[in-house]
Amino acid sequence: MFGKCHDGDSYHADYEKTMKNLLIIFTGVFATGYIFTMANAKQSPTIDELDALLYKVSKNIQSASQVTKMAQTMNAKMVESKVKEKKALKEEVKMAEAKMEAMEQKIEVYAVKMIGNGIDTATEEVKFSGPVYDAWLNYVEEGGKEDFNYFRLYLWQQK
Fold first, then answer.
1. Contact in structure between 106 and 148 (CB atoms under 8 Å)
2. C-alpha 3: how far from its chain's center?
3. What is the pTM for the complete model shown?
4. Cβ(103)–Cβ(126) under 8 Å?
5. How is the chain split into domains, by residue range?
6. Which of 44, 83, 108, 139 is most buried, with most CB under 10 Å away?
């Protein structure tokens, strides 16, 4: 139909057979791919399933907000307790500083008395130590009178 080769056969006939075979193969591959694609295609969820999912999500959000509220209240309680604890510690520090000032004043008084008695405090550092002084510190800490000489002379008895 389109012409002949020099040997008299149609060279287009071979191409037509090849094209028919390729068309059949392509159609088969296309049909097979289409069938398998349809088999693996997922169906869209129904409205009931979407409503159920939305309900679950809203419940999860509500429970998360409740947990957040609980965490915030616990955090507020912890902050409040820490503020109280800090205030109590500040008061204790003030009391300890007041005790230290009282002790420093007593040490100064004793240093003046020692100087008055002829003991040179410039060369000999005043040191309060020993069992009598430790017992007096315990006595004062328990609420006793803060007069060391009174304690030493009248209350303390060496064992």
1. yes
2. 88
3. 0.34
4. no
5. 17-127
6. 139
C-alpha 62 chain-centroid distance: 24
Distance CA(159)–CA(149), nearest Å, equals 18
CB distance 113 to 119 below 8 Å: no
List Cβ neighbours of 38 (8 Å cut-off, separation of 6 or more): none
Q: What is the pLDDT of residues 97-149, one digit of tens each?
A: 888 888 888 877 777 777 666 665 555 555 666 777 777 788 788 777 777 66
Distance CA 69, CA 104 (A): 52
Answer whether 10's CB lies under 8 Å from 3's CB.
yes
Query: Structure tokens of 144?
Result: 């006793």
Write the DSSP symbol of residue 44. P
